[in-house]
Amino acid sequence: MKLSRRAGSMAVFAALLLGASFNLAAFDIESMPTPEMQERYDGLTHELRCMQCQNQSIADSPVGLAEDLRRDVREQIIAGKTDEQIRDAMVARYGNVILFRPPFTASTAWVWVFPFLLLLVGVFVAVRIVRKRTALMASDDSVVEPEDVTR
Amino acid sequence: MTRFLIPAAIFLALAGVLYVGVVHSPNKSTMQSALLGKAVPEFSLPVLANPGMTLSKAQLKGSPWVLNVWGTWCAACRDEHETLLGIARQNALPLVGLNWKDEDDAAIDWLRQLGNPYSVVAVDRDGRTAIEFGVYGAPETFFIDADSRVQYRHVGPMTPEVWEREFLSRIPRGVLP
Fold it and tell me: Count of CB contacts below 8 A, A vs B?
């Protein structure tokens, strides 16, 4: 019974995977004339937000607007624009929201700083716990018998 | 005591940050245009139902106008259409349509059946001009001043309240008929 249930969930998972691959095939990512351009195109389209479906990049989204923005990126690369210029042009039209990696400004500073603050807090807590346990171990002078360890 | 106070404080701080994040996350219907106060992008587009005619930014300079982005594929555009017809009857501001990624025939049929609120409709078949305007969903409506600068952008169906509060109020005194 348990085994067949696992097989069932495997089948569901496989079906989901298949669905996902069909979904990817639903729109084609245009290919660029040179591998260098292709690399820049792939990079840029993955770091620009699809404004219609905000948690997807324009590379991942099949909607018409994402398609138009991919075409725009493609044309700008071919026209000889730098990544910086293309990003700036997108921000000029849609604002910083379109960048998945927002620039470090006064209003976005906390986005960048907060995770590191949290990390510091985590390190502080971890160090405290380790110190406390080390102190406990040092004060514990009971002898551990070999059979206790193997148990 | 600190055993509970510190985790509680961390929890509250995190909850506070997440709350602010959720409350202030960009709302699709209120996201401000990046073009506010900036010049309208250059465009030159064919005019709907007038083969050979084009509409450009320069032609509209000199008095305030309104750009309404729509398409026959857009359900919310149908919702706002009645409001647009009412606005057109006021004759306060020229209403320029931007027919976004649509078919000419479908657009012409739509205006014939539902009525035409627009002074002129520019055709943006491939969506290039809409991108320049930072459009991310129809309908969107822009108030553009006499110097061709974007003063306001409304996302979603136009309502009489929004029209009065955000559009009519932006007409400089003396221009109102």
Answer: 47
Highest mean pLDDT among A102-111, A140-149, B7-16: B7-16
One-letter identity of residue B171: I
pLDDT band, residue A139 (cuts 50/70/90): confident
A89 and A127 in a single domain? The answer is: no
B contact test, residue of A53, A65, A118 with most B CBs within 10 A = A65
Mean pLDDT score across all residues of chain B: 91
From the CA of A6, how many Å to the nearest CA of chain B?
A: 37
Q: Which CATH number fits domain B29-170: 3.40.30.10, 3.30.300.30, 3.40.710.10, 3.40.50.920?
A: 3.40.30.10
Q: B100 phi and psi, to 5 degrees?
A: -95, 120
Specify whether A28 is located in the same domain as A78.
yes
Q: Give the Cα separation of B119 and B114 in Å (integer).
A: 15
Task: Tell me what ipTM this predicted complex has.
Answer: 0.80
Does the residue A129 lie in any domain?
yes
| Binary contact (B134, A94; C-beta < 8 A) | yes
> In terms of residues, how long is chain A?
151
* pTM, entire model: 0.74
